[in-house]
Amino acid sequence: MSQKGILAVVSGFSGAGKGTLMKELLKQHADQYALSISATTRSPRVGEEHGREYFFVSKEEFEEMIGQDALIEHACYVGNYYGTPKSYVLEQMEAGRDVILEIEIQGALNVKKKFPDTLLLFVTPPSAGELERRLRGRGTETEDVIRDRLKRAVEEAEYMDQYDYILVNDDLDACVASMHELIQSQHGKTSQNLEFIAEMKQELKQL
Ligand code: 5GP
C-alpha cells in the first residue's frame, strides 16, 4: 500500500508556544516529520542562520521565486514577504514524510485552497489572560510590541474557526501528543488511500 506524507499547517497566536511545540514534536519523531523552511525578505535575528530558520533572500530574489512558481504560497506579514518553497515540501511528501508548515493564517488558507487535504491546526493558550501573561513573561518585548501582538491576536481569532482543529497548549507533552495523533490519524483518511481502495477493488474481483 503506497501512501504519501500528510501536509499539516500549524498556526497560532504569537506567544502560544508553537516554536517549542514544533521542536519537541520533531525531537520525538525525527524520522516521521519534515519541517518546511520558508523564504523571507526580513533580516535574520540574532542567532538565526540562513537555511536553518529561514532562507533569507532579497525582495528581488523573492519576486523571482514568485515568477518561477517556486512557492506553494506567499504572504506579506508586517512589511515583509514570507513564502513556502514548493520543491522541498513535495519531495518530502513523496518520500512518505509528514510535512509541517508553520505559517500565518493567510498562507494557511491559501495552502488549503491549493491542497484541500491539508490539515489545519491552530495552537492557542487556554485563555486570553494566559496569552497576555506569556507575552509579558518573555520579558524581551516592549509594551508597544506586546500591545501589537495582542491586537493582532484579536484579528487572528476571527479565522480560528476555519481551522480543522484547535490545540490548547496548556501542558506541552499533552499538546505534542495530541498534535502527533491528529496528524497520524490523517493517514487513514479515504482520500489518502485511493490507490489502496482501487487495488482492493481489483483484487476482490479477481478472487
Ligand atoms: P517571524 O518573522 O516572527 O519569524 O514570522 C512572522 C510570521 O510569519 C509568523 O506568523 C510565521 O508563522 C509566519 N511565516 C513564516 N514563514 C511563512 C511562510 O512561508 N508563509 C507564510 N504565509 N507565513 C509564514
Task: Give me the secondary-structure topology.
Elements: E1 7-12, H1 18-28, E2 33-35, E3 38-40, E4 54-56, H2 59-67, E5 71-77, E6 80-85, H3 86-94, E7 98-102, H4 105-114, E8 119-124, H5 128-137, H6 143-157, E9 165-168, H7 172-185, H8 194-206
Parallel strand pairs: 1-7, 1-8, 2-7, 3-4, 8-9
Antiparallel strand pairs: 3-6, 5-6
Helix pairs in contact: 1-7, 5-6
The chain binds guanosine-5'-monophosphate (5GP).
Percent helix range:
40-55%
Oligomeric composition of the shown chains = single chain
Order of helices and strands: EHEEEHEEHEHEHHEHH
Average pLDDT, all residues: 94
Q: Stretches where pLDDT falls below 50 for ≥5 residues?
A: none
Strand tally: 9
Spatial strand order of the main sheet: 2-7-1-8-9
Bound ligand species: guanosine-5'-monophosphate
Percentage of residues in DSSP E strands: 15-25%
Largest sheet: 5 strands, parallel
Report the structural category: alpha/beta
- For the terminal residues, how far apart are their CA atoms? 19 Å
Radius of gyration: 19 Å
Q: What count of helical segments does DSSP give?
A: 8
What is the overall silhouette? globular
Q: Quick gist of this model?
A:
By secondary structure, the protein is of the alpha/beta class. 44% of the residues lie in helices and 21% in strands. The chain is built from eight helices and nine strands.
